[in-house]
Amino acid sequence: MEEPPISITIIGDNMATILYYHPLSPACRSVLILARLLDIEFDLRSINVLEKEHLKQEFVSINPQHVIPTIDDHGFILWESRVILTYLCSAFAKEDTLYPKNIRDRALVDQRLQFDLSTLYRRMEDYIQPTMTYGAYLDEKKKLKITEALGWLNTMLNDKKWVATDNMTLADISLCITVNQIQAFGIDISIHSNVNDWMQRCKTELEPHGFEEIVNASAESVAGFFRSKLKQ
């Protein structure tokens, strides 16, 4: 898979928070796009999972689960992308729009983030990973599970512009990256009118911050690899 160029940070600045990442990872894309929104400079350390670089001892000693993204904020180690998003907002955001301080608004953002992690993203992974890894035939029942989850997201967006509050939040960023990847895999979201309209709003909001470069180009690269496996 060809890696899209990412021109987001200063490399090798020992004063910057270190981000262990790979640009093709959807989980890493959310952290990269948030860095643009918050003007965070990372010291980028690329970890190529396909080459098993995540299993090298120097990385495992930092993160025993050896997953990306992982950050090292001057000795504070953290992984799991959605937790990293909330940490970065708490540490670096000048306003609380993306991750509100109001406990009920924050609870809604957290719930939507968990919906992304445990339901929508998980169902996408369940559908495509057997093909990506083994060249297995696609399971249409698993595709229907994605459609079901998109339907739930569509309901969450009834009479709303954004998934949690009246403004774009971390939940919108995380979920739109998942939905963008689902679209790149060829799954039609147009039957979910609320989701379709919301995705257009997300793209409009994030385009000045590198949506095409960071999110869409990577999604298309992953989808291209997926399609190549389908031909085998």
Number of alpha- plus pi-helical segments: 8
Q: Based on Cα principal axes, name the global outline.
A: globular
Q: How many domains make up the 3D coordinates? A: 2
Using only C-alpha atoms, the radius of gyration works out to: 17 Å
Structural class: alpha+beta
Give a description of the structure.
InterPro entries: Glutathione-S-Trfase_C-like (IPR010987), Glutathione-S-Trfase_C_sf (IPR036282), Glutathione_S-Trfase (IPR040079), Glutathione_S-Trfase_N (IPR004045), GST_C (IPR004046), Thioredoxin-like_sf (IPR036249). Residues 102-225 form the GST C-terminal domain. GO terms for molecular function: glutathione transferase activity. It catalyses: RX + glutathione = an S-substituted glutathione + a halide anion + H(+). With 232 residues, this protein is α+β, with helices and mostly antiparallel strands. The protein contains 8 helices and 4 strands, in the order E-H-E-H-E-E-H-H-H-H-H-H. The protein has a 4-stranded mixed beta sheet with strand order 2-1-3-4, with helices on one face. The longest helix is centred in the middle third of the chain and has 32 residues, at 103-134. It is globular, with a radius of gyration of 17 Å.
SSE diagram, text form:
Layout: E1 17-21, H1 26-38, E2 42-46, H2 57-60, E3 70-73, E4 76-79, H3 81-92, H4 103-134, H5 140-156, H6 170-184, H7 193-206, H8 211-230
Parallel strand pairs: 1-2
Antiparallel strand pairs: 1-3, 3-4
Helix pairs in contact: 1-3, 1-6, 1-8, 4-5, 4-6, 4-8, 6-8
